[in-house]
Specification:
302 residues, mainly alpha, 14 helices, 4 strands, 68% helix, 4% strand
Length: 302
């Protein structure tokens, strides 16, 4: 495999949690690379972030509606992204024990949206925030808290082994982080901690409603499916309709079979790898048979 194929293989075989972490890390590196360049050449370094972070003012949000999502993939520093990604990794792995990958994305994005709305509401409601000037929300904490609290609500008594402490119930961990956010509100970054609580509240509400048979994130899942369909490489144009008679189809099948036998073995092998990767992109890695997984694994070692 060449470099491009290896990257495609790694991406297609990665789970949804790993992909979310990768997107966050890539965004972090890109933003801070721009900051470094701006520092070295004494250029303004906040122009890009201004278009991606979430504002507290509704009027400003109207001009940048995408920021209600994009802010959840940006971080202010190494510790900020490191702590969020560690929690996302472990909470996400536990989450997938009970829910699907699509539902994890629902929790992530709806947690981010809920956190952003609580942040905006707080800055425009509580007197303590009046007269503070411009303020922005950044970070995946609300989205991550939605996943953690969501799975803790589903399996509160799951035993989690922590270093030094030993076994501890999952809901204790979630409750500790929620309480930590509450008591830190007067100490600094109050808007951020309130946003975390917004994400945590969404996670709790989503799971409790699912257990009652109500999927409050179904509308968002439909939006994501529609958006993904816009970029689907396999989507057929409704303007093209081609009719073929049976004889033509038979001739084409015979021609294709003949051409395969004439091809170089390497080309045939590459075709099989491409077909497996296409299957993963359409239906996910778990749709592969055991033989296909072994074939792809062995090909990746060559």
């Amino acid at each position: 495999m060449d470099l491009k194929q290896r990257i495609q293989y790694q991406y297609n075989t990665a789970g949804v949690v790993e992909k979310l972490i990768a997107i966050n890390v890539i965004a972090f590196v890109f933003v801070f690379l721009l900051k470094t360049i701006s520092f070295l050449f004494q250029l303004p370094d906040n122009s890009l972030l201004d278009w991606l972070v979430f504002p507290k003012d509704l009027a400003e949000l109207a001009f940048k509606p995408w920021t209600i999502i994009t802010y959840a993939f940006l971080h202010a520093g190494i510790w900020h992204i490191l702590s969020n990604m560690i929690i996302l990794y472990f909470a996400g792995r536990l989450f997938l024990t009970y829910f699907s990958s699509k539902r994890l994305l629902n929790y992530y994005f709806l947690g981010a949206i809920s956190g952003a709305l609580i942040y905006m509401l707080s800055y425009n409601l509580f007197p303590v925030f009046q007269g503070l000037g411009r303020s922005y929300l950044i970070g995946a904490s609300a989205a991550v808290m939605a996943i953690l609290v969501g799975v803790a609500t589903q399996a509160p008594n799951m035993q989690i082994r922590l270093l030094i402490i030993g076994n501890i119930k999952l809901w204790w961990i979630a409750a500790f982080l929620v309480v930590l956010d509450v008591i830190q509100i007067p100490m600094g970054n109050p808007g951020g901690h309130l946003a975390h609580l917004g994400g945590a509240g969404l996670g709790y509400l989503y799971t409790t409603q699912l257990n009652k048979g109500n999927d409050i994130g179904e509308w968002w899942e439909k939006i994501m499916d529609w958006f993904a369909g816009l970029f689907s490489a396999n989507k057929k144009s409704p303007l093209k309709t081609v009719y073929k008679n049976k004889q033509e189809k038979k001739q084409r099948r015979t021609s294709r079979k003949s051409s395969i036998y004439k091809k170089d073995p390497k080309d045939v092998k590459q075709q099989k790898i491409d077909a497996i990767l296409d299957k993963i992109s359409k239906n996910g890695y778990e749709s592969l048979s055991k033989a296909e997984k072994e074939y792809l694994f062995n090909a990746g070692k060559e």
